[in-house]
Specification:
Low-confidence stretches of chain B: 1-22
Number of helices of chain A: 5
Radius of gyration of chain A: 19 Å
Number of strands of chain A: 4
Low-confidence stretches of chain A: 1-25
Largest sheet of chain B: 5 strands, mixed
Number of helices of chain B: 4
Number of domains of chain B: 2
Structural class of chain A: alpha+beta
Mean pLDDT of chain A: 83
Radius of gyration of chain B: 23 Å
Helix content of chain B: 10-25%
Helix content of chain A: 40-55%
Oligomer: heterodimer
CATH topology of the largest domain in chain B: Neuraminidase
Largest interface: A-B, 28 and 39 residues
Order of helices and strands of chain A: HHEHEHEHE
Shape of chain B: globular
Distance between the termini of chain B: 38 Å
Strand content of chain A: 5-15%
Distance between the termini of chain A: 29 Å
């Protein structure tokens, strides 16, 4: 809901910028920076669209937990809506643990988180054939550091479009 | 003079490190190995090799709780005295133990090396070892002599010096990080890579003689257990079913491998023959059961499970029966490894101060921490059961290998060519 409001706000801004340029034709309009997704093709374009429409390709978890929070479920609801509209797309669900975990346990926790996301997406009607699961354990750290905030940003599942 | 210095040193060690005083300090006399006939070999003269080997043995023993005498070329003894030492001479020199030995050129150009260990006080032989090697392999023969002294005097079940370390060598950082399985001798010699770095690899575990290495590979996308031949580098998947599998460990006889496999969101412990074939499931509990490690007699397995709500250590029989919780220390306990003498279980403790290495007896008593870092994990025992290797990770995510003695004292850095993690210490095949 809030995401939709933000999108409207963004449209509103660009509309007012456009009208501002119309009202002051003497000023040479600065060429607006190209939004990156306009240059993207193929899988990169799809990925950008997926993130824009779903709000995020990433959901986060509590310490040692694979339980989906209400916020994570909302993100996955949006991901599922997009995936249902793109049945040819295959995604890899990549589970991660934070670096305070131990090596073996991190692999299992990453797999549990990825499995939890997969099960939830299937519950929302995404065919299993569209979903693969992998665990990276603590091998692909997103944010370095031992602070609670840094650790929390590593306890995650990324939904990655593979084709 | 030398022995008086050693005496003073041993007294100082008693005074300074009371925690290390669990065993009495033993002064080991290490007079130069002798040679019956100084002959040239492809690695130098036998007298020169004997002297170098003596210095290497002393350097090995200095890294332990034993106190070797400083080698002195004037301390020579005759070839017949190798097997018939004059005990009174070494007793008056203050030694509790004596190492004698010889280096002899064989007619075929190889070296015969023999070592003998004596209890000087009791005036009796403790053990001997001998082999014929290429002259260039004299270092390995010297390490074997060090192992003989160490195991006979301390009563250790296996060696410490003629041993091999497998670990993960790391280049680069972040997503550009390349990880390879590397193996090297305990002293850093004979370093080589078993994998090419084209896929992420983790947790190498050697068979007891080091002939095979099990590890986790992400080749093809999913983490799964691979088995590599250490000599040829040839690899195969342990369980070719496409499931996520990890945390492999050999049994002490090298015949079996315990490991974890995911079924849905559940990780359980399984058993497979190292030669392949069907797998046997050992745990059924919901949650994460992982990091299995065999007892040296192969009858039991220690592992970690979060079935109680947090990671704790458990012990079960090797058929999966009799599962009971071992750790109750109020923190999370992970990555157990059973010591080769069966006396201790090393673990990684996840507490408020981060990851630290500790030990606990298999009956749940005697728990204590051995390190005070914040990123110490993955303990692996020397075959001697007296020392542990572990990895220490700094806040920037870079890791190095360290060793720490079971008897206490500060950890010491192990030199590796690159950043290093996931150490595994094993013996070598004869």
């Amino acid at each position: 809901m809030r995401r939709a409001a933000l999108l409207l706000l963004a449209f509103g801004l660009s509309a007012s910028e456009a009208s501002a340029q119309l009202r002051f034709p003497g000023i040479i309009p600065r060429r607006p920076a190209q939004p990156p997704q306009q240059q993207l093709v193929g899988i990169d374009a799809l990925r950008a669209e997926f993130v824009a429409q779903s709000g995020s390709a990433i959901v986060y978890f509590g310490g040692d937990s694979a339980v989906l929070s209400p916020g994570a479920k909302a993100t996955l609801d949006a991901q599922a809506r997009w995936l249902r509209q793109h049945p040819a797309v295959v995604v890899q669900i990549e589970g991660h643990a934070d670096p305070s975990d131990t090596r073996d346990h991190a692999l299992a926790v990453g797999a549990r988180r990825a499995q939890e996301v997969r099960d939830y997406l299937i519950l929302l009607g995404i065919p299993a054939a569209q979903l693969t699961v992998v665990s990276w354990g603590k091998e692909r750290v997103a944010v370095m550091g031992a602070s609670d905030a840094a650790l929390a940003l590593n306890r995650r599942v990324e939904t990655v479009l593979v084709r | 003079m030398t022995s008086r210095l050693a005496h003073i040193l041993s007294l100082l060690m008693f005074a300074a490190v009371p925690a290390a005083a669990q065993r009495p300090v033993t002064v080991v006399a290490v007079p130069p190995l002798t040679t019956p006939d100084d002959r040239k070999t492809s690695a130098g003269s036998t007298a020169a090799i004997a002297w170098q080997a003596t210095q290497l043995i002393v350097s090995d023993l200095r890294s332990t709780e034993l106190v070797p005498t400083r080698p002195d070329q004037k301390d020579f003894y005759s070839y017949p005295e190798v097997t018939a030492p004059t005990y009174s001479r070494w007793r008056s020199a203050g030694a509790g133990a004596l190492l004698t030995g010889f280096v002899r050129a064989q007619p075929d150009g190889r070296l015969a090396v023999g070592c003998y260990v004596y209890d000087v006080k009791a005036g009796r032989a403790l053990g001997r070892i001998g082999f014929v090697v290429a002259p260039e392999d004299w270092r390995r023969a010297a390490h074997k002599c060090s192992d003989l002294v160490y195991s006979k005097v301390i009563g250790a079940p296996g060696g410490m010096f003629d041993t091999r370390i497998a670990y993960i060598a790391q280049n680069g950082t972040g997503r550009a990080r390349v990880k390879r399985v590397a193996v090297m001798d305990n002293d850093g010699e004979n370093h080589r890579y078993l994998t090419a770095g084209d896929s992420l690899v983790l947790t190498p575990r050697q068979s007891p003689g080091g002939e095979r290495v099990a590890f986790v590979s992400f080749l093809g996308g999913q983490p799964h257990v691979m088995l590599a031949d250490a000599a040829s580098g040839e690899q195969r998947a342990l369980v070719p079913n496409g499931a996520i599998s990890f945390a492999p460990r050999f049994s002490a006889d090298g015949q079996r491998i315990a490991f974890s496999m995911m079924l849905g969101a559940n990780s359980d412990i399984y058993l497979a023959a190292a030669s392949g074939g069907a797998v046997q499931r050992l745990t059924q509990a919901p949650g994460v059961d992982t990091s299995p490690s065999f007892s040296p007699d192969g009858s039991r397995i220690v592992f970690e499970s979060d079935r109680s709500g947090s990671q704790q250590l458990y012990i079960m029989n090797t058929d999966g029966s009799g599962q009971r919780r071992l750790s109750f220390g109020g923190a999370r306990y992970a990555a157990p490894e059973w010591s080769p003498d069966g006396e201790w279980i090393a673990f990684t403790r996840r507490g408020p101060d981060g990851l630290r290495i500790g030990v606990i007896k298999p009956d749940g008593t005697g728990e204590r921490l051995l390190t005070d870092g914040s990123g110490d994990e993955g303990a692996s025992w020397a075959p001697s059961a007296s020392t542990l290797l572990f990895q220490r990770t700094d806040t920037a995510g870079r890791s190095t290998l360290w060793r720490v003695a079971l008897s206490g004292g500060p950890p010491r850095r192990v030199t590796t060519p690159q950043d290093a993690s996931d150490p595994d210490w094993s013996g070598t095949a004869e």
